[in-house]
Amino acid sequence: MDGCLIAVSGLMAAVGAVPAIVWTILAVAGGLGLVIFVHELGHFLAAKACGVKVEKFYVGFDIPMGFLPSSLLKFRWGETEYGIGILPLGGYVKMLGQDDNPKNQAAENERIKVRKADESESAAEEKFEWDPRSYPAKPVWQRMIIISAGVIMNLIFAVIFAAIAYGQGVSYMPCLLGGSAPGDPAWIAGLQGGDKILQIGRHGRPDEQLRFDKDLMIDVTLNGPKHPLDLLVRRAGQAEPAWISVTPTDRLADSDRPATLGVRPATTTILAGVDLESLDDDARPDTQRGSDEGYAALRPGDEIVAVDGQPLPRDPQTGFVFEHDLDRLLAPRMTESVTVTIRRPAGTGAADSAPPQTRQVTLPPTPLRMTGLVMQAGPVVGVRQESPAEKAGFRRGDVLVSLDGADLGDPLTLGQRLLPRIGQSVEFGVRRMGEADPVLLQVIPVAPMNFQDGFSPGSALGVDSLGLAIHLTSVVKEVHPGTPAAKAGLAVGDQLVSVVFTKDGEPEGAPLPMVKAESWVPGFWRPATDRPAEDRVAEKDLFNWYFVHSVLNLVPEAKLELTYRRGDDVERTVAIEPFDSEQYFHPARRLATTPLSQVRTAESWSEAWSLGYAETAASVKKVFAVLQRLFTGKLSYRNLGGPIMIVRAAGSEASEGVARLLVFLTFLSANLAVLNFLPIPALDGGHMLFLIAEGVRGKPLNERLQVTLTLIGVGCLLSLMVLVFTLDIQRFF
To answer: Which residues contact 105 (CB under 8 A, 6 or more apart)?
Structure first.
């Protein structure tokens, strides 16, 4: 089989003319079919070795489906019929005397009866025995081999798949962090761009090639929220790693991420594209028109290597310049034009043979998209460790009300307004639970090093220069005169109920429900899960104003339909067209960068086999961990995926190349092996359970009991299949 897999790998070079989507479909179908084929091949070979007659060998089920044929392909070779069934949900090997449908077992038993050869017996006393080539006629130990052979073959080929993949080289996303989301556990713990996670949990050993999506995200999910997770982290600029303990949050709890640390992977400064559509002069104030020639000079593949003459550090291990280092220079310059130095690789230009180029490009500041609404600041949801805010005595639950004796103003512009005060003492007034009067706190802002928009429900507004994360409510605190919000009739005290983003007058999706004011304890914030059930409003299902603001700045052509409620509880809906501010700016520039991707390649076949075994063992452990957490209620059933999710995941991996697909097949093979050997009647594990009972008792279990248990098992499996199909369809739409 090694030669077959290598041939499949080599086939990629021969399909250069085939569209990528066609290759992906063929690769997914072939890969999933191969996993099923390998499992059934194990049963087939073991049965043949034990002298059992195999009547059918099918990948897919040949079930009659109305006018459709029961099989796509079938042929007979020797005593066995081979085929591909019409229903691609598994496969089966049909042995003489064995039938997966318990209702047919009695008829099958009659079919394999043969007259016992004994001339001393009269015709009236003739006896029967099982056909010696039938499955029931074999001793228990042989039937155990036949039943377990499918699982064993899956595990063997899981190692083979992974070994071949690592022999070729597997691309992966390293656990080098690009930043963390304000208010989330990683941000509070002080994790930032350039930090690298080397180990998850105290078991195991440090690994420089730990994967962000395949290791970190999965382990965080399995750990679940509210349970501390130990991480071995090498901080940016430090040589020695140190252990930290972080407790994941369920703020983003949904079908994909029931728990999160709030970290994002590192990206490079190599440009994937430039948002030229958002730079339309007709939509800009007169003072900014004609200021975007710099963007037009950029090309995908350009690498930003310096800002205003200050070189960006190049990582010696990967050879890349990282976006988090670029952010550290752009964040304090959000109000200014910056001159970036770009390095254009060879072969991009008028001639493919053009040498590498270095040029200077000036990029203007990015105007903040605004509506004229100022929302009430909610409570502080996070204070970053060792930050100016922590040193000044800010607490989770504080509500900012004043800045240097004056009103706090718009929380969205607080970061920019603090830039001139970097290194100087600033006084904030905060409303604190249990205090009658505002508490005055002196804090010295530092230069911001990062910024992140709130592209998820319930995102907190980060004030990086202070190390504060603030919740932004949906209650209107102020409406600036002459702005779109004022013209639409919005007033102080209005409560936003929902928002619809529109483009060219057409809604872009369903209305998004906004966080209600009453879902927050006045003057203090507690997670929804900490409140009594009758008071809970799960922020994971609701959107706040910061999310709306982030989308407006990502999609400048977007407009709004806001539904709000006034004191009389009558809901009104108004249309608002945001505008570019001439005074306030967004720290990000209109650039799209490429994620960091590395390739892990075994230096020898012995290392490839070692990595293949390690990948398989890790996959098996993850499947057992998922099952354990499902049965103990620590993981929601909504995290399960069915055939549609498997195909989507396989397609995603196949689009990244054969090696990535093979690693996915390793996980799928391990998954199939473990699940198939669960002690559930109708699965291989259930058959093994019956055989163990037969071996202990010295005779088979009562046939009626076996049939009853098998029917119950089939019912459970069909119910599970309906459930995962339903979840898949919900995710799809």
So the answer is: 99, 703, 707
